[in-house]
Structures are given as C-alpha cells and as structure tokens.
Amino acid sequence: MSPHPVRVVIAEDHAVVREGTREILERDPGLQVVGEAEDGAQAVELAARLKPDVLVLDLRLPVLSGIDAARQIRTVSPETKILVLSAYDDDDFVHAAMKAGAAGYLLKTAHGSEVVNAVHALVEGEVVLHSRVAAKLVRASENDAYVGRSAGVTLTEREMEILRLVARGLRNKEVGHELGLSTRTIEGHFTHILAKLGVSSRTEAIVYGASRGWYSFG
User: Fold this and answer.
1) Which tens digits make up the pLDDT trace of 195-205?
2) How far is residue 207 from each of residues 95, 136, 188, measured CA to CA in Å?
3) Where do the domains of the chain lie, and which CATH numbers do they carry?
4) What is the pTM of this model?
5) Sheet holding 104-107, edge to edge
6) Residues near 213 by Cβ (< 8 Å), separated by ≥ 6?
7) Ramachandran assignment for 125, one of left (phi > 0), alpha (psi -120 to 50 degrees), beta (any other)
8) What is the tens place of the pLDDT at every residue in 166-186?
9) 55 with 47: CB under 8 angstroms?
10) Distance between CA 182 and CA 191 in Å, rounded?
11) CA-based end-to-end distance of the chain
C-alpha cells in the first residue's frame, strides 16, 4: 500500500448520498476525500485542479452528464481513475461509461467495503465491475478461443481466457486462482495483451474485445 493516502473526489448530486459515500471512504485511513462535486461540470473542474487518484462518479448529474464528464476528465486529468457509482445498469449506460474511460462500474446496491476495495483496486491498475454489470458487458464464449484471429489480432488461447475473465470483473488474483497461475504471470500476460491490441488500459482492452464480438453484450 502507498505511504500516501489515495486522493478521491466524489461527484454526486444528492447530498445525502454524497455525504454517505464520503463517510464510507474516509473510514479507510488509506483514502482521503479531497473534493466533492454536485454536477458534472464541477467534477471536471475539480479533476483538472486537484488531479485526484480516483474520481467516484454518478452518471445522472445535472449541467453535464456523468458520461460527458468522464470524457472530459480523461482529457484534463488522464491519470485519474474513474469509478462509476450508479443506480443504473442499463446496457447503454454500461457501454457508454466504459467507452468514455471509466475503469470501474459499481451499482449503488454495493456494500461500502466493495466501494473502498474498488478504489484501491483502480489505483493498482485493475478494472472493477459489479457482477450484474459484468454479466451485461460480456457473455464468454468457450468454443472459439482464437476468435481474435478473425479481427487481424492474434491472441493466444491463454491471453483470450485472461481477457474474458477480466471482462467478467475478476481481479488479477482471482484470474490467477481460476487458471492456476501467479498474479505476476497474469500481469505479464496482460502487458502482452495491451501491446497486441494497441491500447493502453484494461478498460480499452475490454471495450476493444467487446466491439469485435469476442464476447457478447446483454
């Protein structure tokens, strides 16, 4: 764990929810809430000014929607990881949020500990998806392990397995347990996956695969 607390901004228009989220996060000594936004425009402004490690973002925001805010945040503060915390798991919301650059998507039904763990996981470079969101994002296909070849990209069977498991919302440790591999080995495989796909993040890799039918939405 970093010797410095993870700096977090919360963007949520409902004051009670925003205050509750802050209270949950600040119970963890490794997290520090450095700003709060009531609308999407404020979220972008705080991201640009404070450069937080993580921005917890609702999608239904006034002035500027969460999706549009996420796109702008990726520009003004590219190192900030975006964690969507939403009441909605509609396909359009999920897909748009991931394409906009969100690194995580949790529903507001998640336990406080899940939100805290998600913030830490995002800082460590992982993608975090609520199980219902992951189910909507991907339905793994088990009988076409080399489907990547049809899109002009060659992923090995192992690399495709890892990409699909990550798209289902599993963390590195969980993927390693599933496949009988060490966490370091999983990280190495994913480095190769990113290079082959020509993308820079796990979120982009997941969306890349989904857009080419390597797994199915719905």
Assistant:
1) 888 877 787 78
2) 8, 13, 20
3) 6-136 (3.40.50.2300), 140-211 (1.10.10.10)
4) 0.73
5) 31-37, 6-11, 54-57, 81-86, 104-107, 128-129
6) 147
7) left
8) 887 788 888 999 999 998 899
9) yes
10) 14
11) 36
